[in-house]
Design a protein that fits this description.
Oligomer: single chain
Structural class: mainly alpha
Number of domains: 2
Largest sheet: 3 strands, mixed
Helix content: 25-40%
Distance between the termini: 39 Å
Number of helices: 26
CATH architecture of the largest domain: Alpha Horseshoe
Shape: globular
Strand content: 5-15%
CATH class of the largest domain: Mainly Alpha
CATH topology of the largest domain: Serine Threonine Protein Phosphatase 5, Tetratricopeptide repeat
Radius of gyration: 25 Å
Length: about 625
């Protein structure tokens, strides 16, 4: 990432990233004219570099997680970001995260439009060099417009920079099809002109990103219900297979399983993070100098999905203060649905599929830097066996990675010392809280020398999460659940709030699933779909259990692939678009998969409200309305 942002921005288009102008206008604070700045190769490259800025506010941050992952079949929260998780009255034109999303995406579009406008005027480039560089802007404009049209529908389609057009107080709506026409055109340009390899500049888009994104866009377009939808599905298949069939040429690949570790586990191994061969399009984080758009304030994803380790967990020895592995528990709230935990993932102790283990923390260890003795009041409060009074849960936190030169300080993490089972009860002696996705008999749980909360404790019979009023222990159990662990590798921990690893926006595993779905949508080719999805499934097991992951051709239909996408991509900010493409943003579907969502309105909630700041600033707000809100 530092290679993208290490050049001085000769002329900044914005005085601040969070603009509020109705026409997405921007202020040029420099005394150097754009004609001078952007016709110089260095100035032009700085402009293209700045097109990447928006990525850093939507991945690993709540401003992207809310719109892209919440309000689906996978996650729920009774309080956090309820506009997205529950579709309640706070989903309106004043919703702050949507304002950031709208402004950020349109800001990127304007940067990209400016780069595209000035590309032909840059002096000193050959035609090939110019196209190679401006192709990055075409790609990022496509990415931004894809998010705009999926979130807000047919709104304003910008193809020229505001520095040229000036204020547009009477913007016009474009259709979703018009958005997709431009997105596809931009990505085709990127496929033709981006290099196969950007060299040492990690995070800069290359051909693999363009083909992967083109496949994703073609497939998503099928949701428009156009008469030629099967043709777009076939084009999605062709773009996806271009990558899948030529992996070595594009420098990509899936990680292979071996006898001890699955390929999926290797995918999330921190040692592979900065050179991950599966990542096609990523948010590259500079972990050495923190020369990122918001410096070291990165990788907060894990803290939003964290169970309560500072209140309920603290009574059993956990604490957010001294442990960096799980994350900081001050901003928690997103928790998995029963559908995700017990139906999509197999609720057994030792599944062949390692994706549940790599997606969730279920074991939380004593992180107090000292042993923790269980007191009578805690045993009584949690209805545990009286024999556990006085039991000692061993400290497991210690300073690690002291020899890593890129760490500004030391990293404290639980689960690094005293990981033993001296009492031979089958559980490590430092275990404080255990949240499996399978059910354990109540009598057995009562005797466990730690807090164990399983699905029978987490959920009501109707699938809703327990609350303080629906369950005797609901006050405590509603805050105990498996916590998402993707992007939590110890290797890239900076502190309990900041994680410095790269974040994948699109990876090869998803491209296989895109291709499988496209094979079905284009020609109902079950054989091809099964072939593709079984590659993904078998790499999720160690080699000795790979056969257990093979799915029969007859069982591979669209519904199965939607489930498979959840198992593969949970928490990776893809799910809302998946449900939208499948037509699953409905009351009936949520009743089956996420019954805590009770206020979903099918007449408006499949698109987001247009931010009020935009409506207040234009002269023709009635032509836009509020998208039904």
């Amino acid at each position: 990432m530092k290679k993208i942002f290490n050049k001085t921005i000769v002329v900044l288009l914005l005085s601040t990233w969070f603009f509020t102008a109705c026409d997405l206008d921007e202020v040029n604070p420099s005394t150097v004219s754009p004609e001078v700045a952007y016709t110089d190769p260095e100035g032009f490259e700085s402009l293209v570099n700045y097109c990447y800025d928006g990525l850093y506010y939507f991945y690993g941050k709540i401003d992207g997680i809310g719109p892209l992952e919440m309000g689906t079949d996978l996650w729920i929260s009774e309080s956090k970001e309820s506009a997205f998780t529950l579709y309640n009255s706070t989903m309106n034109t004043e919703q702050s995260k949507l304002k950031v999303f709208w402004q950020g995406m349109y800001s990127t579009v304007n940067y990209c439009n400016t780069a595209i406008y000035f590309a032909d005027q840059v002096e000193g480039y050959t035609e090939e060099e110019k196209n190679r560089k401006v192709a990055e802007a075409y790609f990022l404009r496509a990415w931004s417009n894809f998010n705009i049209v999926e979130q807000f529908g047919g709104v304003v389609l910008r193809t020229e920079p505001s520095i040229v057009t000036g204020a547009d107080n009477y913007p016009e709506r474009s259709t979703e099809a018009e958005f997709y026409d431009l997105i596809i055109s931009d990505l085709k340009f990127a496929c033709d002109h981006l290099p196969v390899d950007q060299g040492y500049e990690r995070g800069r888009v290359a051909k693999k990103a363009a083909y992967g994104m083109l496949a994703k866009v073609y497939l998503q377009r099928t949701r428009l219900g156009e008469s030629n939808a099967s043709e777009y599905a076939n084009l999605a298949l062709e773009a996806a297979l271009e990558l899948i069939d030529n992996q070595e040429a594009y420098g990509v690949g899936l990680y292979d399983s071996d006898d001890s570790i699955s390929g999926y586990s290797k995918l999330w191994d921190g040692r592979n993070n900065k050179t991950n061969k599966e990542y096609l399009f990523l948010e590259a984080v500079d972990h050495e100098t923190f020369f990122n758009p918001d410096w070291s304030n990165r990788g907060r994803t894990r803290q939003y999905y964290l169970m309560d380790l500072k209140r309920v967990g603290a009574e059993w020895g956990t604490t957010e203060k001294y442990c960096s592995w799980y994350g900081r528990a001050n901003d928690r709230g997103f928790k998995p649905t029963r559908y995700l935990l017990t139906e999509l993932f197999e609720p057994v102790k030792d599944p062949a599929d390692t994706r549940f283990k790599e997606t969730f923390f279920t074991e939380y260890y004593n992180s107090r830097w000292k042993d923790h003795e269980l007191k009578q009041e805690v045993i009584d409060k949690y209805q545990k066996d009286p024999s556990l009074v006085g039991h000692v849960i061993k400290n497991t936190v210690y300073t690690i990675f002291e020899d890593k030169s890129y760490y500004a300080g030391k990293v404290n993490a639980s689960g690094t010392v005293n990981m033993v089972d001296e009492d031979e009860d089958g559980y490590l002696d430092g275990l404080s809280v255990f949240t499996p996705n399978y059910t354990i008999a109540a009598e057995e749980k009562a005797k466990m020398p730690f807090l164990c909360v399983d699905p029978s404790d987490m959920f009501e019979a109707n699938g809703k999460w327990v609350t303080s009023t629906t369950s005797e222990m609901g006050t405590y159990y509603k805050d105990c659940y498996p916590s998402m662990r993707k992007y939590s590798s110890l290797f890239w921990i900076y502190n309990n709030q900041k994680w410095q690893g790269d974040i994948a926006i699109l990876r090869l595993g998803e491209v296989y699933l895109i291709a499988a779905e496209a094979a079905l949508r284009s020609s109902d080719n079950k054989a091809k779909a099964a072939e593709l999805v079984n590659v993904i499934r078998q790499r999720c097991a160690v080699t000795s259990r790979a056969s257990e992951m093979v799915v029969a051709q007859a069982d591979v239909d669209l519904d199965f692939l939607l489930e498979e996408r959840a198992r593969e991509l949970a928490g990776e900010q893809t799910r809302w678009y998946d449900l939208k493409r499948y037509g699953k943003l409905t009351n009936s579907y949520f009743a089956q998969t996420n019954p805590d969502i009770v206020d979903f309105n099918e007449s408006k909630h499949t698109i987001r409200p247009i931010p009020q700041t935009f409506l207040d600033a234009i002269a023709n707000p009635d032509e836009f309305g509020t998208n039904g809100y």
